[in-house]
């Protein structure tokens, strides 16, 4: 088992034990909420893992490496950020997809831009933001988020050398 995963599991368990001793009803509510979130995320995780396996078989590694590989540079990062705009659903759907793309040769900068864009932008969620925050703020936030996804992708590529 992964050491980070094991550490997180132990910390979470200890947190629930401490909360359970201090505030049993809050610990119970936390477990109930966790179960609810797990139920919501599980279908997305399952479908996205199958999608990642499918992508690994459908796309040719050379094509993925050419379009999104580390050697693709800024165009690959821009493509990654743009593809992230189409992200819908749970964030859990993106992780297996990115793992599959990494396996096919996608570069870290493009995948950073993809994940960041998916998390911060996702075009399907922007219309829900406008009534609460206004069109101007939504557009400025989206533009800045896209630029940050691209800058982050460039920095990640530099860091990975």
How are the elements arranged and paired?
Blueprint: H1 3-22, H2 24-58, H3 61-68, H4 73-84, H5 94-103, H6 108-120, H7 126-133, H8 135-160
Helix pairs in contact: 1-2, 2-5, 4-6, 4-8, 5-6, 6-8, 7-8
Give an overview of the whole structure.
This protein has 161 residues and is mainly alpha-helical. The protein contains eight helices and no strands. It is globular. The two termini are 29 Å apart.
Helix count equals 8
- Please give the radius of gyration in angstroms: 19 Å
| Helix content percent band | over 70%
Strand count, sense and barrel status of the largest sheet are: none
| Order of helical and strand elements | HHHHHHHH
Number of strands: 0
How would you sum up the global shape? globular
Short summary:
The protein is mostly helical and 161 residues long. It has eight helices and no strands.
Provide the descriptors you would attach to this structure in a database record:
8 helices; mainly alpha; globular; 161 residues; 82% helix; 0% strand
